[in-house]
Write a structure and sequence with these properties.
Number of helices of chain A: 7
Radius of gyration of chain A: 19 Å
Distance between the termini of chain A: 37 Å
CATH class of the largest domain in chain A: Mainly Alpha
CATH topology of the largest domain in chain A: Arc Repressor Mutant, subunit A
Number of strands of chain A: 3
Structural class of chain A: mainly alpha
Helix content of chain A: 55-70%
CATH superfamily of the largest domain in chain A: Winged helix-like DNA-binding domain superfamily/Winged helix DNA-binding domain
Strand order of the largest sheet of chain A: 1-3-2
Largest sheet of chain A: 3 strands, antiparallel
CATH architecture of the largest domain in chain A: Orthogonal Bundle
Largest interface: A-B, 79 and 79 residues
Strand content of chain A: 5-15%
Oligomer: homodimer
Chain lengths: 157, 157
DNA sequence: TATTGTTATACTCTATAACTATA
DNA sequence: TATAGTTATAGAGTATAACAATA
């Protein structure tokens, strides 16, 4: 099922004077739904997609991954359990610290990761396609600026 | 817990030639996290926030709401059950169709809806604050265009 | 027969608290 | 003591399938 507008209705009422912010709410929903659709096409949950992408570069420890994904380590335990059960990732020991474990991509997981990544990039590309070429770059640049300042704020707090 | 980058890593590897699309993935995460944070500040789940906003204008029927939110009607039953248990909404009969029910905001639900909507608008406003004034409008305009074309595509399919 | 909504069931994602093992 | 990770528990959100009541 695909969402249409809803959350934005109230913003149109309560946020007058605040500009076109409701568009950002819809944008969040469109982007999130798009990624969820791509994940589903590859038989992944959105969170599994993010997990695989987090392992694209190299194995990561649980603490590290939990932080990257913005979830508690206990939640990650379950996430990795399920991904492991599906043959996407493996837990391996970390040399030099017998408390820790590394999570690594399996062969299948690596393929799923690449397929998902490619699919997301392609789907987002299609989303921008209707825009004039010049606007696409502008939009990405501004998106990047917003993300950057948001992260800067969070890191301070 | 707040997420940092992760999903975008693989895109940087697999999506070369596709431009700055990874920024859009991060943007989705930043926007979604921001709305989740605001919901939490008002003791709502993100989905409850969306539900309340969907009822801001007038009562809605279950089928209608499920469609707006992009979930199955059975899932909406549970969502409304929990919201009703918290005193945010009520189920009332629809005159003229004894199969249907309307969902309406309670007094509390209405206040929560306005508070949440205001909070979201304010939080999104802060997110744009670091941008030059001119860029803010541009960003919202482009966001609106992306959303519009995405919805147009979905409506066709 | 078709539509509206609920119930039953199962799974994913999440948090908190308590625990084990290692540093 | 502090850190890494798991287990236990509880709750939210979701889908599918089967169902009841009404149109």
């Amino acid at each position: 099922m695909r969402p249409d507008e809803t959350t934005t209705d109230v913003l149109r009422c309560t946020a007058h004077g605040l500009g076109e912010l409701p568009e950002l709410v819809e944008l969040a929903i469109v982007l999130t739904s798009t990624m969820a659709r791509v994940a589903e096409e590859h038989e992944l949950t959105p969170m599994q997609g993010r997990l695989l992408c987090g392992l694209g570069e190299q194995p990561r420890r649980m603490v590290d991954l939990a932080q990257s994904l913005g979830i508690e380590k206990a939640a990650l335990t379950g996430l990795v359990d399920r991904a492991e059960r599906r043959g996407l990732v493996e837990r391996t020991p970390v040399p030099g610290d017998r408390r820790a474990v590394q999570v690594t991509l399996t062969e299948d997981g690596g393929q799923a990761m690449v397929a998902f990544g490619t699919g997301v990039a392609s789907a987002l590309g299609e989303l921008l396609e209707p825009l004039p070429v010049k606007d696409r770059a502008t939009f990405c640049r501004l998106a990047s600026a917003v993300v950057g300042s948001a992260r800067a704020t969070w890191d301070h707090a």
